[in-house]
Specification:
12 strands; 7-stranded mixed sheet; 15 helices; 3-stranded parallel sheet; globular; 370 residues; alpha/beta
């Protein structure tokens, strides 16, 4: 783990260890379904970690090392994380679950490529006595626990930011909506929240569900929107995440716009933060991964040991296939030029020097990031 990620993890580590020590009792008492063998191993447990893709920076830069660190902290260094990345292929992820079952992991943390397609694999793991934590995306099937952000609120924050940016000119042209992949249940929640803020306040000229969240697909969609609507008619773009925002902004620049319209984002990726500093991207949604990953690790370790989740989870969430899943929902924040210091820099996600590279330095100076 690099210094920045290790620094960012310090505060959540202490809290998580305290929660772990407080969690006691049997799986039967809590209603959890952790297999008994996990409880007998003490700290020497194996946690399977399945992440969906490696194009979005967060997964391997933040989530993986933070989860690995928390598992070690909660098991006195004896716990092991077995990792696999599906690279946006649902079939491969199903095969990876099979491999984890063969390797006899004690619990699984799964961020599903396709929330419906993974349901059979989740059931297969459960049938083998392996509890499953749904991470970031609410997978279907017999999930034991879930942690994510308030995904509908993400859409509300993005949509409101775009309306506020447009102000009195909100209906002087048309906006383009670039939603995420239809296989991701979070994308539907982002879209729902955004529509609640945008409908009736702006004119939506084109709307896309972007295959696999890929920036190149967003770029192609944006080129189509520019061709259909006319570059001078587009006054704003709702982009569901930062990666797609990059592809969108590239298309807008290629079309020769003298002034870029406001473009939203999500994830506070380094490139997105730099675009915000330079005034190319209007905002992003900052999601504190330093909390989400460690919470998933807490849940998985507790389930593997046969401990209850009552000291960890704060609420319950319903999926299409299971009711009242013990859950932790983590708050989010709007990230703009005005609060970069108070968010990603304060929390140790990025340093000023990482953000303010040579091509961004003048823009950093202009907003006081020196």
């Amino acid at each position: 783990m690099n210094t920045r990620t290790r620094r960012a993890a310090v505060s959540v580590t202490a809290t998580a260890m305290a929660v772990s020590l407080a969690a006691c009792g049997s799986a039967k008492e809590s209603g959890d379904t952790a297999k008994e063998s996990g409880a007998k191993k003490g700290g020497a447990i194996k946690i399977g970690l399945l992440l969906p893709e490696n194009q979005t920076a967060r997964y391997e830069k933040f989530d993986k090392p933070l989860i690995e660190k928390m598992v070690k902290d909660l098991t006195a260094g004896k716990g092991q994380v077995v990792y696999a990345n599906a690279k946006q292929d649902a079939t491969i992820q199903t095969q990876q679950v099979d491999t984890m079952i063969t390797n006899k992991v004690d619990a699984l943390i799964v961020d599903a490529v396709d929330s419906k397609a993974i349901a059979g694999a989740v059931k297969k793991a459960k049938d083998q006595g392996i509890p499953v934590v749904a991470f970031d995306r609410l997978a279907e099937g017999p999930i034991d626990a879930y942690t994510s952000f308030d995904n509908e609120q993400v859409g509300h924050v993005q949509g409101k930011a775009l309306v506020d940016a447009l102000g009195a000119k909100a209906k002087d042209g048309q906006i383009v909506m670039m939603n995420g992949a239809i296989t991701d249940p979070n994308a539907a929640l982002f879209k729902k929240g955004a529509h609640a803020e945008l409908d009736g306040k702006v004119n939506i000229g084109k709307e896309y569900d972007t295959k696999e969240w890929k920036p190149e697909n967003a770029n192609a969609n944006m080129e189509g929107a520019i061709s259909a609507l006319g570059k001078d008619k587009i006054i704003g773009v709702y982009s569901a995440n930062d990666g797609m925002a990059g592809g969108i902004i590239t298309a807008l620049k290629a079309a020769g716009l003298s002034k870029l319209p406001p473009v939203t984002g999500q994830d506070a990726e380094l490139a997105g933060v730099q675009r915000i500093v330079m005034g190319e991207q209007f905002m992003s949604v900052y999601k504190p991964y330093v909390q989400e990953g460690p919470v998933a690790a807490q849940m998985a370790v507790a389930l593997a040991k046969g401990q209850p989740l009552t000291m960890i989870t704060k609420t319950t969430v319903d999926s299409p296939t299971k009711q009242a899943i013990p859950s932790v929902i983590i708050p989010i924040a709007s990230l703009t030029r005005a609060n970069i210091k108070e968010t990603v820099i304060r929390d140790g996600v990025y340093s000023k020097s990482e953000i303010c590279t040579a091509n961004v330095k003048d823009a950093c100076d202009a907003i006081g990031l020196k």
